[in-house]
Specification:
Layout: H1 2-11, H2 17-28, H3 40-50, H4 53-68, H5 75-82, H6 84-97, H7 99-124, H8 138-151, H9 155-165, H10 173-196, H11 198-222, H12 227-240, H13 248-259, H14 264-268, H15 270-273, H16 277-282, H17 284-314
Length: 315
């Protein structure tokens, strides 16, 4: 979205203009219209599950960097990328170097859209079928359509494939246990501290509150959150870190939302504001996201720092 907005600012291109034109024309001509791409939420969840945990930080950092980048995009670069050979080589390189990311982000969607097109052809028997897609999906969809035409699967088989591609991968049991194990270790540390002396026990509790709450509050300050939000970050983080079902970011994001309610103009300007890093702090909608992110990060770091400090004092 931010990258598209930078293109719009530079070249006067409205993001998604071709899709909007197709929708408008279809409605004017009373032509049946269908969205064939997979839901973005499902795609992002499948990407998250497919990418190893140690690579997720790098990908997220790259997304943030691209969102706030001020780099100018040259018109010649865009024209060169639109050429078939250049586009094909770029996607081939992407597929080779980032297989875990390419699969759910590109290849699965190509297969999903090909299934949708095949299904429409078999069910509705349209005389003509116009499909509006991104250029990067053309080759993949074409390949899957040829495969479908050659094999002629039943609609039941195609529906089964669509359902398979729409599933959200189940979270590993190990990742469900780890947060509770960390909480158990922290609480055990408190218990050991108080069993030795009340003074040591309260010292461990103090360290936990100051470190965890302090780093969460620092996150709120980095996001230039409302003072009440910053205070709530300090108070909530030490408690939410002992309950894996709720995070400090959820609490502080909610408080920020109440203290600085987004206006209609914030939603209208969201795409434009997030094209530049200053806009993220200016727009009330994106600021809530920043508060959520920085407070969550601060509390997470605080949990490990305070946890190691507690263990160090006990042993």
């Amino acid at each position: 979205g931010a990258f598209q907005q930078r293109l719009a600012d530079q070249f006067g291109i409205k993001p998604g203009a071709e899709m909007l034109a197709a929708i408008k024309e279809a409605k004017q001509r009373d032509i049946p219209l269908k969205v064939i791409d997979r839901d973005i939420g499902i795609t992002l969840k499948r990407v998250y599950r497919a990418v190893p945990w140690w690579q997720r930080t790098g990908i997220f950092s790259g997304l943030i960097a691209s969102a706030i980048s001020r780099e100018k995009i040259e018109e010649e670069d865009i024209e060169r990328l639109k050429e078939g050979d250049m586009l094909e080589s770029t996607f081939s390189e992407f597929a080779e170097n980032s297989k875990n990311l390419y699969g759910p982000l590109i290849d699965e969607r190509d297969r999903y859209m090909a299934d949708q097109i095949y299904q429409i052809q078999k069910q509705d028997h349209p005389k003509h079928l116009l499909v509006i897609i991104g250029a990067g999906h053309l080759k993949g969809i074409e390949s899957y359509l040829k495969e479908l035409d050659a094999n002629q699967p039943s609609l039941e088989e195609v529906n089964k494939d669509l359902q398979e591609l729409s599933k959200t991968p189940v979270k590993s049991w190990l990742w469900k246990i780890i947060p509770w194990a960390i909480v158990g270790i922290i609480l055990l540390g408190f218990g050991l501290g108080f069993s030795r002396s009340s003074e040591l026990g309260w010292e461990l509790v103090r360290d936990w509150v100051l470190i965890n709450g302090g780093l969460a509050a620092l996150g709120a300050l980095l996001a230039t959150a409302h003072p009440v939000t910053t205070i709530s970050a300090f108070l909530a983080a030490p408690l939410t870190s002992l309950n894996p079902t709720i995070g400090a970011g959820m609490v502080t994001g909610g408080v920020e939302l109440m203290m600085r309610r987004p206006q209609v103009e914030d939603f209208s300007a969201l795409r434009k504001d997030t094209a530049h890093w200053q806009g993220w702090w200016k727009n009330r909608v994106s600021k809530v996201l920043l508060v959520f992110f920085f407070c969550t990060l601060g509390s997470a770091i605080g949990t490990y720092v305070a946890g190691f400090k507690i263990i160090d004092k006990l042993f």
